[in-house]
Amino acid sequence: MLVVETLSKTFGATTVLRDFSLHVASGAVAGLSGAIGVGKTTLLRLIAGLELPDGGRITWDGTPWSSRDELLPPWKRPLAMVFQHPTLWPHLPVKYQLEFVLRSSRFTATERRHRTRLMLKRLALDHLADRYPAELSGGERQCVAAARALVRQPKLLLLDEPFSHLDKETRDGSWSVIRECQAADGATIIVVTHDAAWAARSCATLRELRRPECTRE
Amino acid sequence: MLLLSFPILLPTYILALSWAVWLLPALSLGQGGTAFTATGALPTLCVWAAALYPLPLWATFVALQRWNEAWSEAASVNGVVPIWNIWLRARYLTVPVSAAVLLIWLFMLSDFAVPDYFRVSLYGTETFVEIASYGNVRGAIIASLPCVAAAFLAMLAIARLWRRWQLTTDAAERATPTAQLSTTSAAARNASAGAVCIAVGGVLLFVVLPLITLVHTAGEVGLFVALWPAIWPDGLLSATLSLIVATAVVLLATVTAYVTQRGVTRSPSIMRAALAATFAIPSALLGLAGIALWNQPGAIGSVYTSGAALVLLLVARWLPLAHELQYAGFRSVPPQLEEVAWTSGVPWSQSTGHIVLRYCREPLLATGLLIFILTFNDLTLAALLAPPGWSTLPLRVFSTVHYGSAATLAATCLWQLLFLLIPLAALAWLARRAGQQR
């Protein structure tokens, strides 16, 4: 279970989050929506360990992840994240994007190749395996980023506007694959989107973020 | 970074002379160099390494500036441990660093002054001896053909690497500064501080200390000052020649780089390949070709006797390098910036002048400066193509090595460095002033 307690984050004079709390049960799919600039991405970055909170704490199944004084490095957390802009390593072809994240795990080279092939096939990306990111369209890049996040079978999947570059058909297809993986692995998903209608349909719980002064459930 | 780049300012032959004074003080400078015959290869390699390492340094620096911290973050949040994150960056750097290494190899192939000084028989020295001692242009050209073939292969390899690099650094994924990971930044800061300390120590030990020894060898200030009347005409000629060549190269490179980068020409790759092939021809062979073409009686010979041949071949020598630097500069300006201007009614000439060239001011200036330095320090082409009565500063240093005293040689070397430092200091001052005004 992910527990976020009275989390605060300030950038200079701007308070992005103030005393924000969130509980997400294991295996749940939680949506976060809100207008631009309310701190949705910052919240995900705090959960991922890319930012240090100014106050409050984040725990996962009782293990402390982040607080003002301590930070468990992101690579030690059983999570994966898909950024709003598909952040692919420009010098690695698609298949190596996936194989590379498996290197830090216990998998052998054969297993890594096998898992990579399977995941690419599952997302219908196998024909792009040898292409560089510069040779992909925006939607294809986003799908590769999703495949890269799923291939490690993370316990917590953070999705930051993952479908903003996709058409409706591709979005629904990708989401169903993500849900299949989630159902198989029992992963928890937190998805950030400004499309509140889609989030209401697709997520078990939906939390709307507002300006720090009036964050509401 | 300025201190670490300092060795590129030094001609390799001056560094070689400083090293000889520093390492072997018992040996006299001048009179044909040191007697390193058996072991000359090692100091030759060391001098080249000390003089040319700024090239991979810059390649790494520029490549890392394009590194997007989001790529590191993407690795971290997908479970990649820090050691593999380093590997990710190292792999990213392979292409630019390999290209820089190949470029160094081409420079080494063209340099005859350092192996000549340390008495190492290499392609460069042998070709030069053929033409300088025996006047055998045909023999020199035949002797150099295998090396030219190897140089072409190296250029092909660079072109291949360049294509791959372009694929991995598309404009859409240009680096944007993001928040650094607080957990790694402290360690990274310590590591980079250590690396900088080691690098600065290396520069002090292998570049600055030998130069100080050179100052010591020059001895009294009186000798240094006494050389001025003989030095200044050569210095003025070198500076004028370098200014003309640098201006011409920058103007031409701006045009060629723009038309190839923006796809104005129908066959940009052929144009780039032709320019790259020119750079693969070592200076000595380019000089020989110039002699064969222009050192003739009649009207054609006036190209040689007027010095135009030297200017033309210096431009041909450095244009490919300037072209690639400008190309990279134009590539960093998104075409959309121009397109917005065009669709807003701004004509092409104005959008190029006010948008593209304004964004590329720094690369333009840096290219001009680099070409100025390279031309100023050029010895091979000047030795082969300078018309009768012309003497550049590098030529004076070269003749003093063979016919002058150690103190005179050291003082001449220092004058050459001073000539280079004055315009650089003025330029740095102007740049700083412009920065303050901005």
Alpha-beta classification of chain B: mainly alpha
Main beta-sheet strand count, sense and barrel state of chain B: none
The greatest interface between two protein chains, and residues involved on each side, is: A-B, 37 and 29 residues
Order of helices and strands of chain B: HHHHHHHHHHHHHHHHHHHHHH
Largest sheet of chain A: 5 strands, parallel
Question: Number of helical runs of chain B?
Answer: 22
Characterize the overall form of chain B.
globular
- Mean pLDDT across the residues of chain B is 78
Sheet/helix structural class of chain A? alpha/beta
How much of the polypeptide of chain A forms β-strand, as a percent range?
25-35%
Kindly state the mean pLDDT of chain A as a whole number? 86
If helices are DSSP runs of H or I spanning 4 or more residues, what is the number of helices of chain A?
Answer: 6
Low-confidence stretches of chain A: 213-217
Oligomer: heterodimer
> Which range best describes the helical content of chain B: under 10%, 10-25%, 25-40%, 40-55%, 55-70% or over 70%?
over 70%
How would you write the strand order of the largest sheet of chain A?
Answer: 6-7-8-3-9
The proportion of strand residues of chain B reads under 5%
